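Entry type: protein chain
Record version: 2
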Amino acid sequence: MTVLQEGKRYTYAEYYSWDDDTRWELMEGAPYAMVPAPGQKHQSIVGELYAQLATFLKKKPCKVFVSPFDVRLNADSNDDTVVQPDVIVVCDMTKLDGKSCVGAPDMVIEVLSPSTARRDRFMKLRLYQLAGIREYWIVDPDLKAVSVHVLEDGKYFIAVYDETDVAPVNALKGCVIDLSEVFME
Protein backbone atom coordinates (compact mmCIF):
# COMPACT_ATOMS: atom_id res chain seq x y z
CA MET A 1 0.00 0.00 0.00
CA THR A 2 1.23 3.44 -0.91
CA VAL A 3 1.79 5.80 2.02
CA LEU A 4 1.61 9.46 1.07
CA GLN A 5 3.06 12.28 3.13
CA GLU A 6 0.66 15.09 3.97
CA GLY A 7 1.66 18.34 2.26
CA LYS A 8 4.28 16.70 -0.01
CA ARG A 9 4.14 17.50 -3.73
CA TYR A 10 4.54 14.52 -6.04
CA THR A 11 5.62 14.05 -9.66
CA TYR A 12 4.46 11.68 -12.38
CA ALA A 13 7.50 9.42 -11.75
CA GLU A 14 6.46 8.97 -8.11
CA TYR A 15 2.77 8.61 -9.03
CA TYR A 16 3.60 5.95 -11.62
CA SER A 17 5.47 3.89 -9.00
CA TRP A 18 2.54 3.67 -6.57
CA ASP A 19 1.58 0.03 -6.27
CA ASP A 20 -1.83 -0.07 -4.64
CA ASP A 21 -5.23 -0.62 -6.20
CA THR A 22 -6.39 2.95 -5.61
CA ARG A 23 -6.73 5.15 -8.69
CA TRP A 24 -5.13 8.56 -8.19
CA GLU A 25 -4.88 11.90 -9.91
CA LEU A 26 -2.21 14.54 -9.27
CA MET A 27 -3.09 18.20 -9.52
CA GLU A 28 -0.12 20.49 -9.19
CA GLY A 29 1.61 17.76 -7.18
CA ALA A 30 -1.26 17.11 -4.76
CA PRO A 31 -2.69 13.56 -4.83
CA TYR A 32 -6.44 12.93 -5.04
CA ALA A 33 -7.89 9.44 -4.63
CA MET A 34 -10.53 8.52 -7.16
CA VAL A 35 -13.09 6.75 -4.99
CA PRO A 36 -15.68 5.42 -5.03
CA ALA A 37 -15.95 3.72 -8.41
CA PRO A 38 -18.42 5.40 -10.79
CA GLY A 39 -22.01 4.17 -10.71
CA GLN A 40 -24.20 2.70 -13.42
CA LYS A 41 -25.63 6.00 -14.71
CA HIS A 42 -22.15 7.51 -14.91
CA GLN A 43 -20.78 4.51 -16.81
CA SER A 44 -23.75 4.47 -19.19
CA ILE A 45 -23.18 8.14 -20.07
CA VAL A 46 -19.44 7.62 -20.56
CA GLY A 47 -20.12 4.58 -22.75
CA GLU A 48 -22.56 6.46 -24.99
CA LEU A 49 -20.25 9.46 -25.36
CA TYR A 50 -17.39 7.12 -26.25
CA ALA A 51 -19.56 5.20 -28.75
CA GLN A 52 -20.71 8.33 -30.58
CA LEU A 53 -17.19 9.78 -30.71
CA ALA A 54 -15.63 6.46 -31.77
CA THR A 55 -18.20 6.08 -34.55
CA PHE A 56 -17.45 9.58 -35.85
CA LEU A 57 -13.68 9.06 -35.62
CA LYS A 58 -13.61 5.71 -37.43
CA LYS A 59 -11.00 6.00 -40.23
CA LYS A 60 -10.02 9.50 -39.05
CA PRO A 61 -6.66 10.48 -37.55
CA CYS A 62 -7.97 11.21 -34.03
CA LYS A 63 -8.50 8.59 -31.31
CA VAL A 64 -10.88 8.49 -28.34
CA PHE A 65 -9.99 6.94 -24.97
CA VAL A 66 -11.88 6.31 -21.72
CA SER A 67 -10.67 6.33 -18.13
CA PRO A 68 -8.49 5.06 -16.68
CA PHE A 69 -5.97 6.68 -19.03
CA ASP A 70 -3.34 9.10 -17.70
CA VAL A 71 -3.15 12.61 -19.12
CA ARG A 72 0.06 14.40 -18.14
CA LEU A 73 -0.88 18.06 -18.55
CA ASN A 74 2.52 19.59 -17.79
CA ALA A 75 4.95 16.80 -18.66
CA ASP A 76 7.34 19.29 -20.27
CA SER A 77 7.86 21.21 -17.01
CA ASN A 78 7.03 20.05 -13.47
CA ASP A 79 5.27 16.84 -14.60
CA ASP A 80 3.15 17.06 -11.46
CA THR A 81 -0.36 17.09 -12.96
CA VAL A 82 -1.80 13.76 -14.02
CA VAL A 83 -5.54 13.44 -14.53
CA GLN A 84 -7.80 10.62 -15.70
CA PRO A 85 -10.74 12.27 -17.48
CA ASP A 86 -13.74 10.09 -18.28
CA VAL A 87 -13.24 10.54 -22.04
CA ILE A 88 -10.46 12.18 -24.09
CA VAL A 89 -9.87 12.78 -27.78
CA VAL A 90 -6.31 13.01 -29.09
CA CYS A 91 -5.55 14.11 -32.65
CA ASP A 92 -1.75 14.43 -32.35
CA MET A 93 -0.55 10.83 -32.07
CA THR A 94 2.94 11.99 -31.04
CA LYS A 95 1.38 12.85 -27.65
CA LEU A 96 0.72 9.16 -26.96
CA ASP A 97 3.60 7.30 -25.32
CA GLY A 98 1.94 3.90 -24.89
CA LYS A 99 0.77 4.50 -21.33
CA SER A 100 -0.41 8.13 -21.28
CA CYS A 101 -1.19 11.29 -23.19
CA VAL A 102 1.78 13.62 -22.79
CA GLY A 103 0.38 17.14 -23.03
CA ALA A 104 -3.08 18.48 -23.73
CA PRO A 105 -5.58 16.29 -25.57
CA ASP A 106 -7.88 18.05 -28.03
CA MET A 107 -11.03 17.31 -26.03
CA VAL A 108 -11.79 16.22 -22.48
CA ILE A 109 -15.10 15.08 -21.01
CA GLU A 110 -15.80 14.77 -17.30
CA VAL A 111 -19.07 13.24 -16.08
CA LEU A 112 -19.87 14.67 -12.67
CA SER A 113 -19.99 12.41 -9.63
CA PRO A 114 -20.80 13.63 -6.11
CA SER A 115 -17.21 12.98 -4.99
CA THR A 116 -15.55 14.80 -7.93
CA ALA A 117 -18.02 17.51 -9.05
CA ARG A 118 -16.28 20.38 -7.29
CA ARG A 119 -12.85 19.41 -8.63
CA ASP A 120 -14.25 18.95 -12.16
CA ARG A 121 -16.05 22.30 -12.17
CA PHE A 122 -13.30 24.43 -10.68
CA MET A 123 -9.83 22.92 -10.31
CA LYS A 124 -9.82 20.89 -13.52
CA LEU A 125 -11.50 23.68 -15.49
CA ARG A 126 -8.59 25.97 -14.56
CA LEU A 127 -5.95 23.31 -15.25
CA TYR A 128 -7.48 22.36 -18.61
CA GLN A 129 -7.66 25.99 -19.68
CA LEU A 130 -4.03 26.59 -18.67
CA ALA A 131 -2.93 23.43 -20.49
CA GLY A 132 -4.65 24.59 -23.70
CA ILE A 133 -7.26 21.85 -24.04
CA ARG A 134 -9.39 23.05 -26.95
CA GLU A 135 -12.71 21.75 -25.63
CA TYR A 136 -13.87 20.65 -22.19
CA TRP A 137 -17.30 19.14 -21.57
CA ILE A 138 -18.76 18.92 -18.06
CA VAL A 139 -21.67 16.48 -18.08
CA ASP A 140 -24.20 16.69 -15.26
CA PRO A 141 -26.18 13.42 -15.08
CA ASP A 142 -28.71 14.79 -12.57
CA LEU A 143 -29.60 17.91 -14.57
CA LYS A 144 -29.19 16.05 -17.89
CA ALA A 145 -27.11 18.95 -19.13
CA VAL A 146 -23.69 19.56 -20.66
CA SER A 147 -21.54 22.67 -20.24
CA VAL A 148 -19.28 22.94 -23.28
CA HIS A 149 -16.16 25.03 -22.74
CA VAL A 150 -14.41 26.05 -25.97
CA LEU A 151 -10.95 27.63 -25.79
CA GLU A 152 -10.51 30.91 -27.65
CA ASP A 153 -7.51 33.17 -27.06
CA GLY A 154 -6.57 31.25 -23.92
CA LYS A 155 -10.02 31.56 -22.27
CA TYR A 156 -12.98 29.22 -22.18
CA PHE A 157 -16.30 30.33 -23.61
CA ILE A 158 -19.32 28.34 -22.46
CA ALA A 159 -22.42 26.96 -24.15
CA VAL A 160 -24.96 24.84 -22.30
CA TYR A 161 -27.02 22.01 -23.82
CA ASP A 162 -29.71 19.75 -22.38
CA GLU A 163 -31.06 16.28 -23.09
CA THR A 164 -33.11 17.50 -26.08
CA ASP A 165 -30.11 18.95 -27.95
CA VAL A 166 -27.63 17.75 -30.50
CA ALA A 167 -24.38 19.38 -29.36
CA PRO A 168 -21.58 20.23 -31.78
CA VAL A 169 -18.04 19.11 -30.97
CA ASN A 170 -16.05 22.19 -31.88
CA ALA A 171 -12.69 20.38 -31.73
CA LEU A 172 -13.88 17.85 -34.36
CA LYS A 173 -15.28 19.52 -37.46
CA GLY A 174 -18.61 17.95 -38.43
CA CYS A 175 -19.03 15.95 -35.22
CA VAL A 176 -22.20 16.24 -33.16
CA ILE A 177 -23.37 14.36 -30.07
CA ASP A 178 -27.03 13.41 -29.69
CA LEU A 179 -27.64 14.14 -26.02
CA SER A 180 -31.02 12.37 -26.02
CA GLU A 181 -29.01 9.16 -26.51
CA VAL A 182 -26.44 10.15 -23.88
CA PHE A 183 -29.06 10.75 -21.20
CA MET A 184 -31.38 7.87 -22.14
CA GLU A 185 -32.31 5.98 -18.98
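Comment: The first strand starts at residue 24 and ends at 27.
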